[in-house]
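A.,

Following up on our hallway conversation. Structure tokens first:
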């Protein structure tokens, strides 16, 4: 057994306890969690510590019954932060303080006095060899942490405090949704190799990113192009413009003739009403507009014009 395995088992118990507070219906034993439970835990981990683990990692380290190894320290650190510790070192120190120790086998000699089994003296050397071999394997083929940050392509500044959703696609796995932190960054825990994800940021054009991840951690900035039309529409709905004819002409140039516009319920995100191009522009440009305080949540384009748009209407606070 790995010398720190007992602490990893205790960590798994605390992870289960924390997650089951919100999801009491799932099994206590992490190895019994199904795909839905694992996906829910991934999302909870992302919200709590702004990082995530892959489904493959979960199967390799949780569902696989291998007492001779434990996960990498950086992954153990983020799991420990999830349950309220600063990292793996603090977690082990706290458990040792609570009396959780690895027992050392003993045998009796002919006189009945106790002595350490001589074979046990070989364990430290074995552990060193094992850890060194594990380090080589991990650095060659293990999961790495890759950091991506979103940047405005026009201003070259980070996209902070924005609604940014990442949909991650991996081979032989269901798509995984990851949220960026307030600095517009997210951490990807993955094996080296090809990865693809779609970035959706409010008032920026969506983009599909494909990368071949190297065999070491990296940090990269990804440029997003602002969705100027979506931002202009939102500004129009908030502003008090006198030249309605000019605004109408500007809006007509933004949309294709067959554009479909969906007003979405702000709570369940389902469509409440559908407008064609003329209906939407008409409601947005009359002096007593029935569409105010619009927040555009999604646009899609045909060429350089909007062919579809989804929006919610916030309550008028004036």
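Then the amino acids I'd put at each of the 318 positions:
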């Amino acid at each position: 057994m790995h010398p720190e395995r007992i602490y990893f088992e205790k960590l798994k118990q605390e992870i289960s306890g924390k997650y089951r507070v919100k999801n009491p219906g799932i099994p206590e034993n992490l190895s019994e969690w199904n795909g839905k439970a694992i996906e829910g835990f991934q999302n909870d981990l992302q919200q709590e510590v702004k990082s995530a683990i892959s489904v493959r990692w979960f199967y390799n380290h949780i569902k696989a019954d291998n007492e001779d190894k434990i996960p990498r320290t950086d992954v153990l650190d983020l799991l420990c932060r999830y349950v309220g510790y600063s990292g793996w070192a603090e977690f082990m120190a706290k458990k040792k303080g609570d009396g959780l120790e690895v027992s050392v086998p003993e045998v009796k000699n002919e006189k009945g006095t106790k002595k350490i089994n001589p074979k046990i003296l070989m364990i430290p050397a074995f552990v060193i060899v094992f850890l060194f071999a594990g380090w080589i394997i991990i650095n060659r083929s293990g999961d790495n942490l890759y950091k991506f940050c979103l940047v405005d392509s026009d201003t070259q500044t980070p996209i902070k405090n924005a609604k940014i959703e990442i949909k991650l696609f991996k081979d032989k796995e269901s798509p995984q949704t990851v949220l960026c932190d307030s600095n517009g960054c997210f951490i990807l825990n993955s094996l080296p190799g090809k990865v693809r994800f779609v970035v959706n940021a409010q008032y920026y054009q969506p983009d599909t990113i494909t990368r071949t991840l190297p065999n070491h951690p990296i940090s990269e900035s990804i440029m997003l192009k602002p969705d100027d039309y979506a931002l202009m529409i939102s500004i129009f709905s908030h502003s008090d413009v006198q030249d309605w004819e000019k605004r109408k002409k500007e809006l007509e140039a933004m949309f294709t003739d067959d554009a479909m516009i969906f007003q979405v319920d702000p709570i369940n995100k389902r469509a409440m009403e559908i407008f064609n191009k003329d209906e939407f522009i008409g409601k947005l440009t009359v002096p007593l507009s029935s569409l105010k305080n619009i927040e555009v949540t999604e646009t899609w384009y045909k060429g350089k014009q909007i062919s579809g748009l989804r929006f919610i209407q916030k309550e008028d606070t004036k």
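Residues 103-108, 135-141 have pLDDT under 50 and may be disordered. Curious whether your intuition agrees with the design.

B.
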